[in-house]
Write a structure and sequence with these properties.
three-stranded antiparallel beta sheet
Length: about 300
């Protein structure tokens, strides 16, 4: 279905904010657009099993070792990438995988075939920029450097992701993943077939801090006062949703194809995936993990004592 004028207007504002799902530096205006292969998606939407309800996001924290490149790079850059929304559980790690029906599986196979074709179309940053994708964050460990085409945020189509993820920001930097950033009212988009594409948001603590140019100058932990001191304003993001799709050969995500973070993506912010991690950031990640473990033990002990 084509986007309405109202959706276009709302998406225009929302996506300047929406790029926050990328977590560091970006934002631009947006239009809703059908994009290529829209007819193919219409046919797919009619396939049996396409409709499904999404389950709550659950992360297997016990699978974390502290040894993955992502964990060594530091703590999550944003609350939103490791939990469903502002009310979700703040934890990184592999997602619980739910059963997929035969009909949904057949649809998902076709959707991911279309998604993988995007990888061949945009192998480098130069290829993405030549087709209108703009840098919306520097390289961020665990999730890559984001390049966004805001004309694609008004609808879901696996063949036209609104964001492409790279291992750096040089023209020859290589693609490592895809991301679907969408403006959608009333909950997460229908998205991929099956229950495992757990869409997340970046609306904790009033959202991100954006300046007058719609550039993010503070993440979700930034207070209102800190934001204003930087010349920005905290913006809620209730209708902005995002899911990653790790389908690039050689960069298959060990935490799940739709995981918020990919353990193979290390490096450091503003650099590349191949840079040595920042020792201070790694220590901060370890300290955070220790506090989480201590809190979990305390909760477990309280629960046991109450039985």
């Amino acid at each position: 279905m084509a986007a309405t004028p109202t959706l276009r207007r709302r998406a225009r504002f929302a996506v300047g904010v929406a790029v926050i799902a990328l977590l560091t530096f970006a934002a631009v205006p947006a239009l809703a657009d059908k994009g290529p292969d829209h007819g193919a998606m219409k046919g797919m939407k009619g396939m049996k099993g396409m409709k499904h309800s999404k389950t709550g996001m659950q992360v297997i924290t016990a699978a974390l070792t502290g040894d993955s490149p992502c964990e060594k790079s530091g703590p999550p850059a944003s609350v939103g990438q490791v939990k469903k929304d502002a009310e979700g559980h703040d934890a990184r790690g592999p997602l619980v995988q739910y059963s997929v029906s035969k009909a949904d599986r057949e649809t998902l196979i076709e959707q991911q075939r279309q998604a993988r074709a995007v990888v061949d179309k945009y192998p480098t940053v130069a290829a993405a920029e030549a087709d209108g994708y703009k840098k919306s964050t520097v390289y961020v460990p665990c999730i890559g450097a984001h390049y966004t085409k805001t004309a694609l945020v008004g609808h879901f189509d696996p063949s036209t992701p609104s964001e492409l993820l790279y291992d750096g920001t040089a023209p020859d930097s290589k693609i490592v993943g895809l991301s679907y950033l969408l403006f959608n009212k009333g909950g997460p988009p229908e998205g991929f077939a099956g229950p495992n594409d757990q869409w997340h948001q970046h609306n904790a603590n009033g959202g991100l801090c954006l300046n007058a140019q719609a550039v993010v100058v503070g993440n979700e932990s930034t207070t209102k006062q800190q934001c204003e001191a930087r010349g920005g304003k905290k913006v809620g993001l209730e209708d902005i949703w995002m899911v990653h799709d790790w389908v690039v050969p050689g960069w298959e995500c060990g935490w799940g194809v739709f995981a918020g973070e990919c353990p193979e993506l290390g490096g450091r912010i503003g650099g590349t995936v191949f840079d040595a991690p920042d020792p201070k950031a790694f220590k901060k990640a370890l300290d955070g993990k220790a506090k989480t473990t201590s809190s979990q033990k305390s909760t477990s002990g309280s629960s046991a004592g109450g039985k």
